[in-house]
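Fig. S4 source data, part A: sequence.
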Amino acid sequence: MAPLVWLVTGCSSGFGEQFVYQILARGDKVIATGRNAATKLTHLEGTGAAILDLDISLSADETALKVEQALQIYGGIDVLVNNAGYIESSPIEELVPERLLRSYNTNIFGHYNVTRALLPHMREKRSGVIGFVGSQAGWMGDPSATAYVSSKFALEGIVECLQKEIAMFGIQVTIFEPGYFRTQALSQQNIQHEPGKIPAYEEFNKAVIQYEKAVYGNEPGDPVKAVSRMIDVLTGTGTAAGKPFPPRMPLGTDGLKVMRDKCQDTLKMLDEWEDFIVSTDFTKEG
């Protein structure tokens, strides 16, 4: 079978970097992308990966031009991994709209624009696989994480709509929902904090930073294993061989617990309030 061609966003570290190494190890081709690639992706030079500078927070038109460049490298793309993202940390009252939009431009619109730019190519050949790296944050809220959490909730909705729209073209779509994995995601260099301006939140903000520092480096998830499982799902091989293609997939013990608890709590609420809920329907006559 001919090697697959992958396009992966956010390859400077973490999952993105691991995707590059593991895709190449399986004999496939990969286009590794990232912002400021000339400085941030130098560690991937010489690996066999094609490197493309791509800032997914750019406009839709600029992103489309970059995707067209990517398509020319190997003559096509079989698998897209929407992986790039970052965290803005702030309580809602201190989270100005500009910061929220900045987060959305990368965590939502970036993936949206890359996917839209690639869809005509996959639709024309009536095949392709698209994976979104979401988060357990797409299932639950966390204090000081409004920008990140809401972006991951939005991705869940985008993916569900996309799945129903493009299945008829032979294109498969899934979203992965990792818990805490030992990457650079929670490093203080990657989390965007702004100086707080409301005294009432001063101690709260300090506690949030202390929590982030305590978790960083102690995350339970192994990113090497996570990427291996994601590749298996996207290719239907290895640990995913013979299993139906999943619409979503939690990763890690904590990711599983978040999803299971949310489902169980929701079912309990529905059972307790069912009579109230259905009482809003029109009353059947006769």
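Fig. S4 source data, part B ends here. The first strand starts at residue 5 and ends at 8.
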